[in-house]
Amino acid sequence: MRTVVLGPATLPEARGTVLTLNRRAAARLGASAQRLDAFARRLVLDTGQDIAPATLAQRLLTCAVRDALGVPDPGLVARSLGGPLRELLRGSADLEALRADPSPQVRRLAVAAAAYRAAQLAVPQLLSVFRYVRLSADELLLIDAAAVRRRARPALDGPPVLRGQPRRSPQPGDVLVAGGA
Length: 181
Prior knowledge:
The protein is an alpha+beta fold.
């Protein structure tokens, strides 16, 4: 669950890793500034891995297709599924719903996407995310995957706190705190 504090309120207490674009905001919180993209890269590097070059990503997709679909030529099938699969993963499509689709091609794509997505790299941890004006769906998914599950604490002396997953990106001045509940 994410908590969004709306308005020019006093920033809540920063806990865990602080993600912010603004060095002054980080200094005000008593933390060093760390960008979301640098945090994502560090998550991958901490697992002893690195960001996959295109050739390695294709090889991993080929392995996922071979294991999930058992086709005679997994390399060819992986190349044909690569573009649609990337769009499914970027768009956060419901793979379970796609597995129930009447089209065998869509079901095959959903199975391959689920196998490719199966590797979980993020170790949950406390996160505080401040002053990001607009977060994409992928960035919100990264924050949710990396955030440890905890109960969010409302600001007692601040503005109203909205709980739940917002249907829009935070607006300028919003404070987004990621964590579980």
